[in-house]
Amino acid sequence: MAREYKIEDYRNFGIMAHIDAGKTTTTERVLYYTGKSHKIGEVHDGAATMDWMEQEQERGITITSAATTTFWKGRDGKMHRFNIIDTPGHVDFTIEVERSLRVLDGAIALLDANAGVEPQTETVWRQADKYRVPRMIFCNKMDKIGADFYRSVEMIGSRLGAQAVVMQLPIGAETEFKGVVDLVEMNALVWRDETLGAAWDVVEIPDDLKARAEEYREKMIEAAVEMDETALENYLEGKMPSNDEIRALIRKGTIAVKFYPMFCGSAFKNKGVQPLLDAVVEYLPSPADVPAIKGVDAKTDAEIERHADDSEPLSMLAFKIMNDPFVGSLTFARIYSGKLTKGISVDNTVKGKKERIGRMLQMHANSRADVEEAFAGDIVALAGLKDTTTGDTLCDPLHPVILERMEFPDPVIQIAIEPKTKNDQEKMGLALHRLAAEDPSFRVKTDEESGQTIISGMGELHLDIIVDRMRREFKVEANVGAPQVAYRETITRRHEQDYTHKKQTGGTGQFARVKILFEPNPE
């Protein structure tokens, strides 16, 4: 089976932001407009496709990063394949963002137009900086009371130290938000409310925005021409680049992580999502546009590179383990090079084990479709792997490589856990083992002195969800509490004792003198 879409037409990207900026709502609109889902799922109704876990639907938050594949026809008329990962915004689940960014080629950073840059925005931005992930910015919730697009632009510079290149201006704000001004084409897009955002009108820029649009277009062009000496010389001589040249230069700067194109809209009100999808095609990189993945030759320890090419030896990184109630353990892997076929054996070079690729799936949140082959740039779920855990490399046995491993933060909170009944002791051990395999930021240990089982995680919510998942998925009821502290006694100051022993009962007597000094160990 040949590759259906060229690697240049792939876009692997994630959606990241502070909690409640509208990541899942935006992803739901993306799925709706790309035809992946035929109704819009709302987070507040517990009906979002990407929030498929019961706990996510009840709490209205994203807990685990969900992957999906969908397709979009770009402005160039070609179909593009999108592999999208919707990540959590809550600080307790920051590990999900970390491991997603490690395997993605680009990201959309969402801002709440009312709040601008928030604390977790700064955290995920730093994580993306660590992996040099090209980003676009979408200023969401333009319909919200207090929405201020220009303040958000200013905060990106002051709080993130990043250069935002404004590509759109909002028409109106709060309840008056109607559409956007496209600064490349210099026209206005106004959405029709009655079509759920599926249709919009291209109209002239409103008079009160014309001067501002000219000002921001000039800033955009100045940022763009700096990416190319010829374009810069022409611009300084008074020759303006064409719209296609502007797009090409903005793409170049975005992929080089020099600046970040910024868009605006309201996902909830169905405004601004389609131009954002066009922008993903135009500005975010394909797997072929990003630098080759570096690794170490498993035999010689020499540094090697693997390019995003089907003809190169197979290499992929397992970035997530998930327990599926119908399929069992699923390993999500990003294929960096080569071709993966069902039924072959691959090497796990980190564990020194062989794995057979039995079943290969393309995921959409928690639904799945079997595939026979996958290629460089694909993200697939593999069923039935025995020894592979998060961060392991799987590769061609004839060309062994170890890709750069992932780093995970240490837990910050720990509690003791015990089953409510003695019969559940074994089941609890199995459940905790499975959950720890899924989530590298969750640790389990047995305290040697108290004999208690101690679980550690990134926060109270994180551990709450773990205990809740044990109850729902593994049918284990558990009690939790503070770990017992094993108290020890010790001396606190220096003490000297002198004792003389005398005993005379006739015959040879007994005599001894003992002098003893106690003092605390300085260490």
Basic shape: elongated
Strand line-up of the largest beta sheet: 18-17-23-14-15-22-19-20
Radius of gyration: 29 Å
In the CATH hierarchy, what is the superfamily of the largest domain? Answer: P-loop containing nucleotide triphosphate hydrolases
Quote the distance from N terminus to C terminus: 67 Å
Share of helical residues: 10-25%
Q: How many runs of DSSP E, i.e. beta strands? A: 30
CATH domain class name of the largest domain: Alpha Beta
Low-confidence stretches are 43-52
Strand fraction: 25-35%
- Provide the CATH topology of the largest domain: Rossmann fold
Q: What is the count of distinct domains?
A: 3
Question: In DSSP terms, counting alpha (H) and pi (I) runs of 4 or more, how many helices?
Answer: 11
Assembly type of the shown chains?
Answer: single chain
Structural class: alpha+beta
Largest sheet: 8 strands, antiparallel
Give the rounded overall mean pLDDT.
85
Q: What's the architecture of the largest domain in CATH terms?
A: 3-Layer(aba) Sandwich
Keywords:
Alpha-Beta Plaits; alpha+beta; 11 helices; Elongation Factor Tu (Ef-tu), domain 3; Rossmann fold; elongated; 8-stranded antiparallel beta sheet; 7-stranded mixed beta sheet; 523 residues; single chain
Please summarize what this structure is.
With 523 residues, this protein is α+β, with helices and mostly antiparallel strands.
